[in-house]
Amino acid sequence: MDLSEVIDAYILESEELLRDMESILLDMEKKSPSSDDLNALFRAVHTIKGTAGMFGFEETVKFTHKVENLLDDVREGKVTFTKDLADLLLRAKDQLEYLVTAETKKDISDERRTLGLSILKEIEPLLEKQIASTQTESNVKSTATSKAIQNVSTQNSDSGFPYYLISFRPKRSVFHSGLDPFSFIVYLKKSGKIRSLKTITLEVQGNKSFLPEDCYLGFEILFESTSEIETIRKVFEFIESDSFLHILPPGSNVEDLVFLAGQLPEEEIYLGNLWKNLGLLNEKTLITYLEHLSANLATNTETPNPSEPIHGKELSESNVLTKQDIHSKGTTLKVDSRRVDTLINRVGELVVASANLNQSVIGKEDSSLQESALLVSRLLNEVREISLKLRMVPIGDVLQKYQRIVRDLGNDLSKEINLHIDGKETELDRNIVDKLGDPLVHIIRNACDHGLELPNERLAKGKEKSGNLWIKAYHDTGSVVIEISDDGRGIQSDIVWKKAVEKGLVSGSKPDNTDEIFKLLFHPGFSTASSVTNVSGRGVGLDVVQKSIESLRGTIQIHSEPDKGSRFLIRLPLTLAIIDGFLVGVGSSFYVLPMEMVLECLEFNLQPSANQNQFFPLRGSLIPYIRMRDVFHTDSPNETLRENIVIVRSGDKKAGIVVEKLFGDFQTVIKPMGSVFQNVKGVSGSSILADGKVALIIDLPSLFERTINLEKIKSEV
After folding, report:
1. How far apart are CA 207 and CA 325, in angstroms?
2. What does 555-615 look like in DSSP terms, one character per residue?
3. CB within 8 A of 391, min separation 6: which ones?
């Protein structure tokens, strides 16, 4: 049997649980832990342990067992939660995260195995304190229970049954919740011995509406164990809400069975025979059981309460399993991201085909054909929006992990750092989110190391002892903006310029525009750090950050003031697959401008100027402009052709692009450029037009940067 998909689901679920576990632990360091937090931590580890046990991942089970015991003691108040304990649990979480993936591949390194043993050695003293204080009590209970089982086994039925009786009826919808009832039964064996088990198949027999995704089985289990009933109940903790579960402890009698039979969905006589086959009843006790049933029917009264209290949850309508169980829960469908990518690619092709169709019907006198084309276009737009949303995820999933990074960096650097995250609900393309992690880590590490001062230095400057780091995400003009800022020492432009002169990157006097100076920080190998640390200072990072951001069709800017802090501004597109564009033409070439950046179009009648600085008057202000013909050296067939200027905006800056033809709105699928053209500034991709011609998709911020650099080269020559 191929279990690869099931194991992939196990890894995915475990990663989600561990991510939540880390978030809870980091929050608990700042506030007193609540019972809900402690229970959530325990459930996360317990779930991973149970699932790992089902697959036979013994290394993971052994490790999680100790961590689970520790968390159980913490939530019961036996172990006090401290910062040191939080640090230990975070390291345990990291080790568990490694084991979950490594053991599925049967590739656990000796180094990580040794690390896991060292973590368990730190946990053992905490558990031994509880073991030492409760050992005598546990021994007494264990001896008493063993004697009770031995005595009951040699006496008649009036003394009670010697073993646990577990009545387990999963709901039909249990598989929809991702739960496997049999895995819980397998896990039960870790607490004792299953003497016998009977499977109830009444729901399957003669069922004409059988659905393979539903569960129709029930289980009666005779279980021998010296554990307390609550320990056994914890085995079924995560499936109890999706099932009817009742546990009769050793010492229960026939009256308890009669009462239980009235709560189960099967007929009482059927249950009596089942319990006899199970080994719980013999000929004598079965007759006694039937006599009690007969007496209840004769008197037409409700079954009396059992002589001993029924252990476990009180029976209620929500606990009783009916034969016509209905699915009351909604379900979440998990789909391989590659399938979503394939779907979006096909939708992109449909967008192009629809554009071709619309151009073909233009000028046709067939009104029904035009109406059908418009309907197809409208429906396709809706499908496109829905498809793109399938790949949109909240950026908070990425930003949340930086809580741990900042915490660890603060400890390593002996700094107190408060991280503030805003805009977690902002959605971004999953493919962009996956590639965004490393660039953000580089910036955060630099901010913690270079930007924020040591506590004594901050106090001397009149600042708070703790430094602050902000990560903010929001939508702006069809893009997503991520700001990373701090209240540290800021970037000293004088030092940056001096270092650049020493490296031969620049010459002359320092310019007044600090933006131009800060761009030097993205040069490979550039660093202003006076010494190399474990965190930064080797000149590797910001150049990688810029290349990563640009590969996502994004831009990055730096703003900083001495002793007030620095701000990194990253602007990214919403998606990498399909964009709304504005199609323009120059000569025989076609270009697509991102629609969200286009403000307006005007007629252009200015003659080219000899001056390199070209500006266009727009309602009392001057904005810079460039000619697409000059940038891409496009030959125009008609030099007297009327020109137009497209006013665009990137961030808070406006500029103009002079073109010859305006074709209007154009939905386009972004096709990556070949390896030869990947590093061409100003172009982010290409698209195929209706007639088969290629249109270049313009990266406006990169285009203007390229133009500025060309102007500098010309002026120097």
Report:
1. 14
2. EEEEEEETTTEEEEEEEEES-SSEEEEEEEEETTEEEEEEGGGEEEEEEE-PPPPSSS--E
3. 337, 340, 341, 344, 429, 430, 431, 575, 577
| Cα 584 to Cα 348, 589, 593, 643, 712, distances in angstroms | 20, 9, 8, 11, 27
Question: What is the side-by-side strand order in the sheet with 653-659?
Answer: 598-604, 643-650, 653-659, 621-627, 615-618
Residue range 159-175: mean pLDDT, rounded: 86
CA nearest to 165, candidates 244, 279, 323: 279
SS3 428: strand
How is residue 229 written in tokens?
Answer: 């009933």
Q: Encoding tokens for residue 78?
A: 């036996």
Query: Rounded to an integer, what distance in angstroms lies between the CA atom of residue 487 and that of residue 467?
Result: 7
SS3 (DSSP) at 512 = coil
When pLDDT is averaged across residues 88-100 and rounded to a whole number, the result is 93
Angle between helices 268-278 and 254-261 (to 10 degrees): 130
d(CA 645, CA 299): 97
35: three-class secondary structure by DSSP: helix
Helix H segments across 29-76? 35-55, 58-75
- 372-427 pLDDT, tens digit per residue, is 888 888 888 888 778 877 878 888 877 878 888 899 899 888 999 999 989 888 88
| Pairwise CA distance, residues 444 & 282, whole Å | 71
Q: Chain centroid to CA 686: how far?
A: 31
pTM score of the predicted model: 0.62
Print the SS3 string covering 627-688: EHHHHHCCCCCCCCCCEEEEEEEECCEEEEEEECEEEEEEEEECECCCHHHCCCCCEEEEEE
pLDDT for the residue 303:
41
Q: Can you give the length of the chain in residues? A: 717
